[in-house]
Amino acid sequence: MAAVLSETHPAALSTASATGSSPSSVAVSTAAIQANTSRMRELCASPVMAVVKAGGFGLGSARAARAALAGGATELGVATCAEAIELRRAGIEAPLLAWMLHDDAPIGAAVAAHVRLSPTSPAQLRRVVEAAAALGVVAEVEIEVETGMNRSGAPRAEWQQLFDMAAAASASGLVRVVGVWTHLSGTSPAQFSVPLTHLSDAVELARAAGLRVRSHAAASRAAAVDPRTHLDLVRLGASLFGVEPVPERPLGLAPVARWETRVSQTRDVLPGESVGYGQTAIASATRLALIPVGYADGISRRASGDEQSMTVAVGGRRFPLIGAISMDQSVIDVGDAPVTAGDRVVLLGDPARGEPSLAEWSSAVGTIPQEVLTAIGPRVARTEVGA
Predict the structure, then answer these.
(1) DSSP character for 42?
(2) CA–CA distance, 118 with 109 (Å, rounded to integer)
(3) 295 has catalytic annotation
(4) Which among 146, 209, 215 is positioned nearest to 178, based on CA atoms?
(5) Tens digit of pLDDT for each residue in 295-313?
(6) Which residue out of 39, 53, 216, 379 is catalytically annotated?
(7) Which CATH class is domain 29-241?
(8) Is pTM beyond 0.70 here?
(9) Which of 80, 95, 339, 381 is close enough to 25 for a disulfide, judged by CB 3.0 to 4.6 Å?
């Protein structure tokens, strides 16, 4: 199916399509996002909040949001007010939660755009109430509480004050408190019990203060391994983009991103010649293929090493990267294969077709699949395909 450009990376320097001036492109399958959302929704049997922060994991927040909603998600989640406002400007009207309210966050603009906000302190809640009063509207909030992550949630010592303030603001008609929620820091059911108990305590306090609230805790991993975490809602991000929550027990999630470039030139080298900066790689008699993609585009320098390197696909065969990854270029060792300039190179694709996968990349560079996706740089054009 032909790729059609419909949205660029938020920080994109180029809006070129795959056939335009950009030397590489990521084709984003909205059908795969939709299918993954539907699959996870069926698995969890709970309403789904689709998390499309960081520009939709680097693949386009609006396109990801629309695809997830088409797959059965009923709400959206992002990290910042600015991300939420961007979605509103794109015409997306679904319920939308933003949970990072830093000091300079555009809270007034978010309230005006009917973005649900997540205060984690009395001071943050006060700002939301003031914005609602100034605008003459009712602001919706969901209060995040700390249950073991020790990151952004409201500490237990402030719960009572926060709920009392929220109840007073609700009684005055300035705020509607929708929920109390938390982030889970663990990865296994044994690690979820204590945080879930703490969350239950917070919900009881909120209800005792007169608030009618829902609760939610689970992201993709917890949702897949522990039904207790499903509560009133699950917040799914990585799984919607094809990241298996439990790699050893795959759910059959569809790959969402296909990253391609083309060979820009080839050269034959003699045994003992070095490749790349630092002369860290010494070639045998081989053919090298140059591609116009480097660490500024998302290929980690850790992808090429002395003992083992990541492999990419050219003409249906896999070949390793060789030498130090440069900012703008990388080199592939293609042996004696008849690779020539202009040949298509698949950097990330469908493992069912023998192409590099997110899991392979994350293993090769020692990180998680989410970082691989979000690290793809702004020079790489984003295109959209239906399937």
Answers:
(1) H
(2) 15
(3) no
(4) 215
(5) 999 999 999 987 789 999 9
(6) 53
(7) alpha beta
(8) yes
(9) 381
